[in-house]
Design a protein that fits this description.
This protein has helices at about 40-55, 65-75, 105-115, 140-155, 180-185, 205-215, 235-250; strands at about 15-20, 60, 80, 85-90, 125, 130-135, 160-165, 170-175, 195-200, 220, 230-235. With about 260 residues, it is of the alpha/beta class. The chain has two domains: about 15-100 and about 175-255, Rossmann fold (3-Layer(aba) Sandwich), CATH 3.40.50; about 105-175, Trehalose-6-phosphate phosphatase related protein, domain 2 (Alpha-Beta Plaits, 2-Layer Sandwich), CATH 3.30.70.1020. The strands form two sheets. A seven-stranded mixed beta sheet has the order 4-3-2-1-9-10-11, with helices on both faces. Pfam families: Trehalose_PPase (PF02358).
C-alpha cells in the first residue's frame, strides 16, 4: 500500500487513464445531511479541466442518484453511475437509465421512518431501490437503527443486503456494486482501453477497488478506517483534489502519487 510522498509504479501519464470518482468523503467532505454539501467553483473547474484532459474519460460513481449529482454540481455535467450502478448516464448529455422503488422496499422504508421519526438527527434518503439511513448527526442512535434494519431485511426479497458505512447504512440490491458500475463504463468510449483509476472512501467502494486492481489499474481510498483492497491511501479530501491536479492535469509520468501517504504492500 502507498502512503506518504512516494511514487507508485505502473500508472501511465494522465491521458492514458479512465478516472472514476466517488463523491461524498472523496471529492466533498461528509455533511450531516446529504443536501448540505456545497461545490465551489474551483472544484467544478478542476473536474471540468480533468475531464477535458482525459478526453471525457472521467465519471462519478456514487450512491447518490444521478439527478442529485446534477443538482449538486450544476452547471457541470459529467458521465455518472448513481445508486451504485443501478443508474447510469454514459455521456454528459445522455439519458439517465433509472430504477424505481419496489413495493417491498417502500413498505420497509415506511415502517422504519415511522419507528425513528422522533429520533433527532436520523435522516432517511429514499432513492428508488436503495434506502439510505444517515446517522452522522446522531451516532448514538446507530446501533438501534442497525438492529431495526437487520430485522426488517427478512421482509425483503433475497436480492437485498445491508451495507454499513462511515455514518449510517443502506439497503442495497445484490446487483448494486460499484465494480459493475465501473465495468459498464469500461465497455464504452471514451473509457474503453484505458487504465482504470478509482478513488473512494467507504466500505461500499471496496468492490470498485477490487475490480480496478484486477484490471491492472490503481485503487485509492481516502482515510481508510480499516482493512481495504485499495493499493493507495490519501489522507483527506484536499489530497484528492491535489492528486487530480498533479496526476491528471500535470500528466506526471510513472504515477507520482504526490500527497498520498506510504508504500505498496
Amino acid at each position: 500500500m502507498i502512503h506518504g510522498n512516494q511514487r507508485s509504479e505502473g500508472l501511465p501519464p494522465g491521458a492514458g487513464i479512465a478516472l472514476f470518482l466517488d463523491i461524498d468523503g472523496t471529492l466533498l467532505e461528509h455533511q450531516p445531511h446529504p443536501d448540505a454539501v456545497k461545490v465551489d467553483d474551483d472544484l467544478r473547474a478542476l473536474l471540468s479541466q480533468a475531464a477535458s484532459a482525459l478526453d471525457g474519460a472521467l465519471a462519478f460513481v456514487t450512491g447518490r442518484t444521478v439527478a442529485m449529482v446534477d443538482r449538486v454540481f450544476s452547471p457541470l455535467s459529467l458521465p455518472a453511475a448513481g445508486l451504485y450502478g443501478l443508474e447510469h448516464r454514459l455521456t454528459p448529455d445522455g439519458p439517465i437509465e433509472a430504477a424505481d422503488e419496489p413495493a417491498d422496499m417502500a413498505a420497509v422504508a415506511d415502517a422504519l421512518e415511522k419507528e425513528f421519526h422522533t429520533a433527532e438527527g436520523v435522516y432517511f434518503e429514499r432513492k428508488g431501490p436503495v434506502l439510505a439511513i444517515h446517522t452522522r448527526a446522531a451516532p448514538a442512535v446507530f446501533p438501534a437503527v442497525r438492529a431495526a434494519a437487520q430485522a426488517a431485511l427478512s421482509s425483503l426479497s433475497e436480492g437485498y443486503r445491508i451495507v454499513a458505512g462511515n455514518a449510517g447504512l443502506e439497503f442495497l440490491p445484490i446487483e448494486a456494486l460499484k465494480s459493475a458500475a465501473i465495468a459498464r463504463f469500461m465497455e464504452v468510449e471514451p473509457f474503453a482501453g484505458r487504465v482504470p483509476v478509482f478513488i473512494g472512501d467507504d466500505v461500499a467502494d471496496e468492490s470498485g477497488f477490487e475490480y480496478v486492481n484486477d484490471e491492472g489499474g490503481i485503487s485509492i481510498r481516502v482515510r481508510p478506517a480499516g482493512p481495504t483492497a485499495a493499493s493507495v491511501t490519501l489522507p483527506d479530501v484536499a489530497a484528492v483534489h491535489r492528486w487530480i491536479e498533479r496526476e491528471v492535469l500535470a500528466g506526471v509520468p510513472d504515477g507520482d502519487m504526490g500527497t498520498a501517504s506510504a508504500r505498496r504492500s
